[in-house]
UniProtKB/TrEMBL annotation:
It holds the Pfam family SPRY. Residues 235-426 form the B30.2/SPRY domain. InterPro entries: B30.2/SPRY, B30.2/SPRY_sf, Butyrophylin_SPRY, ConA-like_dom_sf, PRY, SPRY_dom, TRIM/RBCC. This is B30.2/SPRY domain-containing protein. It comes from Mugilogobius chulae. The keyword Coiled coil applies. Residues 1-40 are annotated as: Disordered. Keywords: Coiled coil. Residues 137-168 form a coiled coil.
Amino acid sequence: MSNDQPIFTVLSEGQQPEKEERVSGGPGASSLPATAAASDTESGIFSVECELCEDHEAELDWFCATEQKLICSHCAVVGPCRAHSVTSLATRVSTVRNQLVDVCEKIQLQALRIERFIEHTLTDKEQKLQAAASRAREQVLAQVSAAREALEEEEQRLLEAVQREEERVEQCLLTQQAHWKQALSSLSQTRVRLVHTLTHTPDSQLVGGGGGGRGVPCDTDQLNLNSSCSDSKLLRGLWATAVLLGQNARRSSLFKFDERTVSPLLTVSQDLFTLTFTNKKSRQPSQYDPARFDSWPNALGSQSLSSGTHCWVVDVGQSAAFKVGVCYSSLERKGSGNEARLGYNSESWVLSNYDGDYSFCHAGKKVPLQVVKRPQQIGLLLDWPSQTLLFYEPDSNAILYSLTQTFTAPLLPAYAVTDRSITIAH
């Protein structure tokens, strides 16, 4: 069938004109000529060829819409379908034919729309896809190339720095060895002379005698490799991003507050995820526990960290005064001195915020932090193998502060809050 040929014309080809019905006294008195009925049945709409009614031996030239079947005129007048909705076979065929013509025309229009969609829309989309994919590939290659170039340059710089530091320490060691070997030889000679003096010098001459020495050898930092020679902000940032976003990125098992350590100034939720600062009127006396902080608004985590890589997130958006970090389990719990105050001793490392003033605190020293936007969450990343502690902002993975520290004992997550509440994300 040609696409340009109207579907109605195609369906109507060879169709015989309908002959008038003979109506006399109702539907039972009308009938179609046999040729018209044969034409309709041969069209394939009804698979009936000259069939007769089983009850009346009359031609099936009417259609019962109620029972959806062909009937004869007697069935329509006096038979079981006399109260049903009936129509002549020719009228029914004409209606169905028109419906089919409408369906075919709609199918043809839909086919044309599909053809246009394939020829125009999909083809245009394919061209745009190829262009966009090409731009994306170029962008990826350019970014990876820039990162690779920067990383290779940083690698070369760091390796040269480590080499220079190694040569410096080697030179110091050689100098020290030469110096103390000479001192050892000199001391040996001096000892021989002193022994000779002791055995051969009269007592009267020993009165004014004296001894000498070469000093006491001692270890110094000059004889150690300076670990800062391998420190790189770029490398640390790339490493942290790889840990936080890379294929092997994973979060540690759920962290919770250790209820035993929670200060009387705080309350902890039943699920042990939320820590809230309480005013004086709401405070309840707490049972004595050697693990509990009794003066500072502190609490520790329940999970000890001494191996592997761990990261956890704390919701801090509701609080304007808090501390998050880590500490040794040996941190003092009693009293109001700095020994129990997070960030003011050598056993704790915390990020502190007080009314928008962000800083890193350790051993009483503060390092101010530039925070462009107040973070709703603070993330912590502890990598035990590299002895690295890192504070970051989870939404952007921007590093707020990082340090490499030789930790000599297992660490516990440490928290403090003096405004509203903080929550460990889970």
